[in-house]
């Protein structure tokens, strides 16, 4: 599993961080998403998929 985030469309809503805090963080400066674990372990798949679903700007992609 690989996760990518498009900071050009991220609106700093923070849903991803609330949903999967092991995988996502937000910049202290502008609140934009940062990916802590670009290749999260399989056991995190469900919460990562939920974070992708919940992102209001569809900035996250899972493959
Ligand atoms: S949920 Fe989406 S818009 Fe919000 S911080 Fe995460 S990536 Fe950005």
Automatic annotation (TrEMBL):
<dbReference type="Pfam" id="PF06902">
    <property type="entry name" value="Fer4_19"/>
</dbReference>
<dbReference type="InterPro" id="IPR010693">
    <property type="entry name" value="Divergent_4Fe-4S_mono-cluster"/>
</dbReference>
<keyword id="KW-0408">Iron</keyword>
<dbReference type="GO" id="GO:0051538">
    <property type="term" value="F:3 iron, 4 sulfur cluster binding"/>
</dbReference>
<dbReference type="InterPro" id="IPR001080">
    <property type="entry name" value="3Fe4S_ferredoxin"/>
</dbReference>
<keyword id="KW-0003">3Fe-4S</keyword>
<dbReference type="GO" id="GO:0005506">
    <property type="term" value="F:iron ion binding"/>
</dbReference>
<keyword id="KW-0249">Electron transport</keyword>
<comment type="function">
    <text>Ferredoxins are iron-sulfur proteins that transfer electrons in a wide variety of metabolic reactions.</text>
</comment>
<keyword id="KW-0813">Transport</keyword>
<feature type="domain" description="Divergent 4Fe-4S mono-cluster">
    <location>
        <begin position="1"/>
        <end position="62"/>
    </location>
</feature>
<keyword id="KW-0479">Metal-binding</keyword>
<dbReference type="InterPro" id="IPR051269">
    <property type="entry name" value="Fe-S_cluster_ET"/>
</dbReference>
<dbReference type="GO" id="GO:0009055">
    <property type="term" value="F:electron transfer activity"/>
</dbReference>
<keyword id="KW-0411">Iron-sulfur</keyword>
<protein>
    <recommendedName>
        <fullName>Ferredoxin</fullName>
    </recommendedName>
</protein>
